[in-house]
Amino acid sequence: MQVEHERIDFRPVLIKDELKIQVSYSDGRQMTSKNFTAREAPFNELMRSGYANIHLETTSETISVRISKKGEPLVHRESVAKDQVLAHDRSKSRLLDSADPFLIAVGISDKTGAVKPSKMDKYLQVEEFLRILTPALTAAISAGHVHTPTEARPLRIVDLGCGHAYLTFATHQYLRAQGIPVKVIGIDIRSTARDRNNQIAHDLGISDSMEFLAEEISETSLHEADVAIALHACDTATDDAIAWAVKCDVRLALVAPCCHHDIQAQMNEIPEPWSLVTKNGIMKERLGDLLTDAIRMQLMKLSGYRVEAIEFIGGEHTPRNLMIRAVKTGATPEPKEMAKYDEMLALWKVKPALASLLNR
Questions:
Q1: Is 99 a domain residue?
Q2: What is the per-residue pLDDT across 42-53, written as a single tens digit (0 to 9) for each?
Q3: Residue numbers of the domain that contains 36
Q4: Which of 56, 240, 250, 300 is the most exposed place for a label (fewest CB within 10 A)?
């Protein structure tokens, strides 16, 4: 069932001493909100509207529900204590304390624990990533696609193209704070990044569960992970990251592509009537971006993943705001999915780099 909105949020608010239900609708680009009385709030309509994932937070627990393709609810409960906030104009709660030692160590916050003005965009990006990772991971564990982490068998996370490792450290510290045993490894081609990040991990006393390597993604010595993340790896480095995740049977992948030169450079024979779009340089570039990511997603689907494109962070913080979220289910793709892929390549006369990496 096609849903009207990408996401709908319900929360109680107190307006002029009257309890209301605020409903926020997001289409992936903007959000609109409307306030209802408890009797008027469209709870029943929501339950019948076709959403496959429901996340409920109370003052005592978090409940995640995923509806399977067979229509069966898969429920995961986690006990957690939270304060109820009814303020109508509340500021968005933060997952990370700006004074956390790791934020100071990586340079996002200053020595007083305040986020540096020049790093506010990066701080917001890190926060947004954790808001995407947490429910995706919870749902994957609940569905049995990712094993339940234990001290004996921690969750193995690899950050491909980690750079300054803002997200790598944030993922490690946040999940550990939630009581989730993890082993996090960051890969970057630069030895200076490896040395810097390993030193920070050592200084923070977490080098037993964090490690950084100076390697090419395509040639890394690592061959296993439960979760792979790759954010804004340039051009075909994103393809290298996806190919590594697929070949290593990664169970959950979160990939935010960056520049897309591979397919764009091959868009020489434009099928009609698409020249109406491609005659404009900026529109041709954006179409090339979408084609590239659509092809990547289809290749992952053909490899047994359930794949979605979601908004990562608003365009005011970074020009690239699409993320590919993929969960390995092992489902055999229908023949028509391969046909769609072949038709796409034939229509645009392109040979995607990822297809070569996956031997397709």
A1: no
A2: 877 777 777 777
A3: 7-79
A4: 56
